Amino acid sequence: MAWIILIIVLAILVIWYVSAYNGLIKTRTYVQESWSQIDVQLKRRNDLIPNLVSTTKGYANYEQGTLKKVVELRNQLTAIPADDHQQTMEVSNQLSTTLRSLFALSENYPDLKANTQFTQLMEELTNTENKIAYSRQLYNSSVAKLTLMIQSFPSNIVAKVHHFQTSEYLQVPEEEKTTPKVNFDDFNQSDK
Amino acid sequence: MLYDQIAMNKRRTGYVMFGFGLLVLLIGAALGYLFWSNWQSGAVIAAVVAGIYMLIMISQSTNVVMSMNHAREITDVSQAPELWHLIEDMAMVGKVPMPRVFIIDDPSPNAFATGNSPEKAAVAVTTGILQRLNREELEGVIGHEISHVRNYDIRLQTIALALSAAIGMLVNFASNWLWWGGGRRRDDDRDSGGNVIVLVISIVLVVLAPLAASIAQMALSRNREYLADASSVELTRNPQGLINALRKIDDSEPMEAADPNSSALYIGDPLKNKHRLGDLFATHPPIADRIARLEKM
Fold first, then answer.
1. Which of B89, B223, B238 has the CB atom closest to A187's CB atom?
2. How far B143 CA lies from chain A's nearest CA (Å)?
3. pLDDT for residue A13 is more than 80
4. A111-118, long-range: CB within 8 Å, 24+ apart, which pairs?
5. Which of B6, B146, B223 would best serve as a mutation to test chain A binding (most A beta carbons within 10 A)?
6. Predicted structure pTM score
7. Are the beta carbons of B209 and B253 closer than 8 angstroms?
8. Residue pair B245/B239 in contact by the 8 Å Cβ criterion
9. Cβ distance B129 to B31 under 8 Å?
10. A25-174 is a CATH 3.20.20.70 domain
11. Fewest C-beta atoms under 10 Å: which of B47, B99, B109, B201?
């Protein structure tokens, strides 16, 4: 009788251990995947910037200084080693801010705004900017999940044995920091 | 929170389908008894027809709903880059597959989502919403629609819509038949009995018609729009965009292309009914309330 109980307890422990380990692996893979999503968008933006330069070439007076800064930041970004996520995002955030001001300034150039190639490019760049922001949001939420698993009992035991490490959160630019607190209780009063 | 919503929606979808099945059997049995004095064959025929109808409806619901609302599908990003990109963004951050994209030619700003599951979802917006809303506002609206997709509101609404339309059709058909064909029973030998049955059945059918419509209503959570608004902000992190969008949607003329039966699907009531029967039967919560809740965030 005692043997049966012992076997059952052992079996439960093994099953728990395996599922905790698999959960950690899954979450870590998700963190890596969400980084590669960011990376895809960063590359896409790097490819779009030369187009921006060539499209605006005809408009000699179009914000040369800002444009130059954009190109510089882009080249800086391509030079950063691939695994340095923090620095990549830091430069990327600067590039985002500069691009945004460039687009805001384009309001002063009616000729340019009438150029369909330019408006298309603007849509493309806005799209990549948004996708970078959203993939960063996903990245940070999966990092939060991984951190929770690594730190909380009992999954921390499995994490320690297999040397799981949490990743760093990616910085969010100042102007995007004001995230509203969503409180579902406010929205779900009278139902059920 | 999301899992609760999904579970509740799946449960309610089950209830709606069960209720519909029961209702169809009853109507079938009543008609069978009335016309062939044999309720079993009526019930069997009704079950078979309703079963086939349900299968067709469930597999084709997106196309049916879209054509009822005069929506045309766009299949390439170049046809509406901004809309396409926003839907892509919201699907990404909401972790659902990219839905199909439809456009309705109507100057009134509005939007809805439909489909049987997040994998087979579709989002439709009017040309009016594309013209009148800026990117931020449109993002709030798309976030709202993707939230409906994510929490299975779309499955419940689409099936409730399909089934209540079917019952409406059946009741219509049966009452016509009763009116013109059923009357002949009066000269038959089963005089008194037949008359009473005809009377009872007509009363039942008259009661059923509005009941069929309210099934769809009952199935829909009165909070679904508030919840989708909140989930939208959770995705976009920008309540102001959705607030401005709702103001613009509120402050507009009724839609022409919208199908009245599908009005519950839309983000704002497309018919602009001024709640004739009071809030109890309104398909949408007042926009002012929705804005007030968003402003509290």
1. B223
2. 12
3. yes
4. A111/A59, A112/A56, A112/A59, A112/A62, A115/A55, A117/A55, A118/A55, A118/A56
5. B223
6. 0.79
7. no
8. no
9. no
10. no
11. B47
B145 is known as an active-site residue: yes
Name the interface residues of B facing A (CB cutoff 8 Å). Answer: 1, 81-82, 85, 88-89, 92-93, 95, 135, 221-223, 226-227, 229-231, 233-234, 237-239, 293, 296-297
Residue ranges covered by each domain of chain A: 25-174
- List the one residue out of A107, A34, A64, A75 whose CA is nearest residue B92: A34
Percent of chain B with pLDDT over 70: 78
For B100-157, the DSSP string reads: EEEEE--SS--EEEEESSGGGEEEEEEHHHHHHS-HHHHHHHHHHHHHHHHTTHHHHH
Is B148 assigned a ligand-binding role in the annotation? yes
Going by C-alpha positions, the residue among B100, B217, B209 that lies closest to residue B149 is B100
User: Quick one: tokens of B6?
Assistant: 């999904």
Q: How far apart are CA B222 and CA B225, in angstroms?
A: 7
| A137/A115 Cα distance (integer angstroms) | 33
CATH for the stretch B71-152+222-295: 3.30.2010.10
B95 versus B35: the higher-pLDDT residue is B95
Give the nearest partner residue to B81 out of A123, A189, A191, using CB atoms: A123
Closest chain B residue to the Cα of A188, Cα to Cα: B223
Q: Where are the domains positioned within chain B?
A: 2-66+155-219, 71-152+222-295
Query: Residues B115, B62: contact at Cβ < 8 Å?
Result: yes
Q: Do B171 and B208 touch, CB atoms closer than 8 A?
A: yes
Residue (of A122, A140, A123, A124) closest to A176 by Cα position: A140
What's the pLDDT tens digit per position in A162-185? Answer: 888 888 888 776 666 555 666 666
Cα distance between residue B59 and residue B113, in whole Å = 16
Yes or no: say if A183 and A177 are a contact pair by the CB < 8 Å rule: no
